[in-house]
């Protein structure tokens, strides 16, 4: 998994800081719907459920978590879209 | 020399817009009668619909007429109701264009144009799925369909995000389960709840209330299912995550977007939600323009109660500005969504910006409160009963000196 130094440049940044569950995962799903295979979505969130919800979703959907970085006051999660649709 | 008249324009005649106009008229009635202030309500909708009633029409055979009142009976006489929809809103020139060729200049603006169900956003959804979010007529189609349904697979759920009234997909599932039990054919009907979220209800504390009840009732839950498309011929639903489901009867909540006038006016984000300060309800970058209810991009549920509480804040801030009291009202993000579960029992989804949603078990008293509120709704729009709501809700805003 990436470190802060090796984070990739995201295709889309989703800033959900300040929103509570299900805000971050809702915002992630909106970005996922508009994404293409190979895109990297970066989710910024303050809600504690964002990390586990995103991990569970990525595992189930076959998308890749590239990085989960705990910043000072939020979490930064990078997801590479590997699977979308049939 | 006569003072110029102050024009306040409220756009949208749903819960938030009607209440805001009435609150302003109530608080400013002396100035309105003196000709110093005008309060306009711009809305082409002559019928005002109590939208939570859609569920009752769809799953309990309530007469659609019972959830509709004439807007005319709900608007205070001090309000000048312009019975047409806004065509375009220009925040820079402070004008609301009306079709055709007319416009209103405003000193203060409150936008309450709500959200629009958008089944067309998902290929096949409009053709394949019934829904209880678009109109009393569409809700009625669900009742007609379930009455004729004798066996098979019913799929209920959320097709995409965001959508208004977060508990409603779960409520619909409980109600349809109750309906088939009452008909004595539940063993012949498979019910599946479909959701893009990781659990039956998005906020975990309330999901812990829903989950065991779904399990006990034999309702299958399929999570992480963002509907990509539906094939009405094959009766198949496909998800962005690569999964699929079959159905015999499909009832999915469509994703929602902002109103057309917001998109046309170029004042919303990509989905048509207006960037708004989550506390003051002021539109970002504008001191004299507000957005409330579903219209905004703020991170709270899109519900009537939310619109009501935000209307109070916006109306008070307008009055405060006109009076020069330097008092700023700030909404605290309070939500209070009624949530019907077991037959005759209901819970509420309660939280705020500072207090996450907590677990509240369903009870008969809460069900009675939900029913009482449905009857009381029409009176709350007058703004004359806010003392009672205040007693119930407690603090829903803070004030500070500017």
Summary?
The complex is a heterodimer of chains A (86) and B (402). With 86 residues, chain A is an alpha+beta fold.
Description of the structure:
The complex is a heterodimer of chains A (about 90) and B (about 400). By secondary structure, chain A is of the alpha+beta class. Chain A has a single domain, classed as Translation Initiation Factor IF3 (2-Layer Sandwich). Chain A is built from 2 helices and 4 strands. By secondary structure, chain B is α/β, with parallel strands linked by helices. A 5-stranded parallel sheet of chain B has the order 5-2-1-9-19. In chain B, strands 13-12-11-17 form a 4-stranded parallel sheet, covered by helices on one side. Chain B has a 3-stranded antiparallel sheet with strand order 6-7-8. Chain B has helices spanning about 15-25, 30-35, 55-60, 125-130, 135-150, 170-180, 205-215, 260-265, 305-325, 365-380, 385-395, and strands spanning about 5-10, 35-40, 45-50, 70, 80, 85-90, 95-100, 100-105, 110, 115, 150-160, 190-195, 220, 225-230, 235-240, 245, 250-255, 255-260, 290, 325-330, 335-340, 345-350, 395-400. The model of chain B has no long low-confidence stretch (mean pLDDT about 95). In chain B, α1 (about 15-25) packs parallel to α9. Chain B has 2 domains: about 5-115 and about 260-400, FAD/NAD(P)-binding domain, CATH 3.50.50; about 135-255, FAD/NAD(P)-binding domain. At the A-B interface, α1 and α2 of A face loops of B.
Structural features:
heterodimer, A: 86 residues, alpha+beta, Translation Initiation Factor IF3, 4-stranded mixed beta sheet, 2 helices, globular, B: 402 residues, alpha/beta, FAD/NAD(P)-binding domain, 2 domains, 5-stranded parallel beta sheet, 4-stranded parallel beta sheet, 11 helices, 23 strands, 30% helix, 26% strand
């Amino acid at each position: 998994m990436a470190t802060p130094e090796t984070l990739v440049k995201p295709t889309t940044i989703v800033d959900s800081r300040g929103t509570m569950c299900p805000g971050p995962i809702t915002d992630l799903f909106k970005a996922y719907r508009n994404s293409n295979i190979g895109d990297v979505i970066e989710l910024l969130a303050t809600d504690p459920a964002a990390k586990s919800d995103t991990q569970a979703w990525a595992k189930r959907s076959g998308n890749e978590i590239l990085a989960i970085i705990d910043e000072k006051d939020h979490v930064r999660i990078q997801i590479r879209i590997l699977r979308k649709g049939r | 020399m006569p003072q110029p008249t102050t024009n306040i324009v409220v756009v949208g005649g749903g819960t938030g817009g009607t209440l805001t106009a009435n609150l302003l008229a109530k608080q400013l009635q002396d100035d309105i009668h003196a000709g110093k202030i005008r309060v306009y309500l711009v809305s082409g909708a002559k019928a005002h619909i109590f939208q939570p009633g859609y569920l009752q029409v769809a799953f309990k055979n309530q007469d659609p007429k019972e959830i509709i009142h004439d807007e005319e009976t709900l608007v205070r006489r001090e309000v000048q109701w312009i019975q047409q929809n806004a065509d375009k809103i220009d925040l820079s020139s402070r004008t609301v264009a009306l079709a055709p060729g007319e416009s209103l200049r405003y000193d203060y603006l409150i936008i309450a144009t709500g959200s629009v169900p958008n089944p067309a956003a998902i290929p096949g959804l409009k053709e394949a799925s019934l829904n209880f979010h678009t109109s009393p007529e569409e809700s009625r189609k669900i009742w007609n369909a379930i009455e004729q349904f004798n066996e098979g697979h019913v799929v209920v759920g959320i097709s995409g995000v965001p959508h208004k009234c977060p508990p409603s997909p779960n409520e619909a599932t409980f109600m349809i389960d109750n309906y088939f039990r009452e008909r004595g054919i539940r063993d012949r009907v498979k019910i599946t709840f479909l959701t893009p979220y990781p659990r039956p209800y998005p906020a975990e504390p309330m999901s812990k209330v829903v989950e065991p009840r779904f399990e006990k009732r034999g309702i299958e839950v399929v999570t992480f299912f963002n509907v990509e498309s539906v094939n009405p011929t094959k009766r198949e639903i496909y998800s962005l995550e690569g999964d699929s489901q079959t159905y015999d009867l499909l009832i999915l909540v469509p994703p929602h977007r902002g109103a057309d006038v917001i998109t046309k006016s170029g004042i919303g984000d990509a989905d048509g939600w207006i960037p708004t300060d989550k506390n003051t309800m002021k539109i970002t970058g504008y001191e004299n323009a507000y957005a409330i209810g579903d219209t905004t991009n703020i991170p709270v549920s899109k519900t009537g109660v939310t619109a009501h509480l935000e209307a109070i804040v916006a109306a008070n801030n307008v009055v405060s500005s006109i009076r020069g009291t330097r008092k700023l009202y700030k909404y605290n993000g309070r939500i209070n969504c009624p949530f019907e579960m077991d037959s005759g029992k209901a819970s509420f989804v309660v939280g705020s910006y500072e207090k996450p949603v907590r677990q509240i078990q369903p009870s008969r008293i809460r069900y009675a409160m939900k029913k009482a509120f449905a009857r009381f709704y029409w009176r709350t729009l007058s703004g004359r009963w806010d003392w009672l709501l205040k007693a119930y809700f407690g603090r829903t805003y803070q004030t500070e000196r500017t």
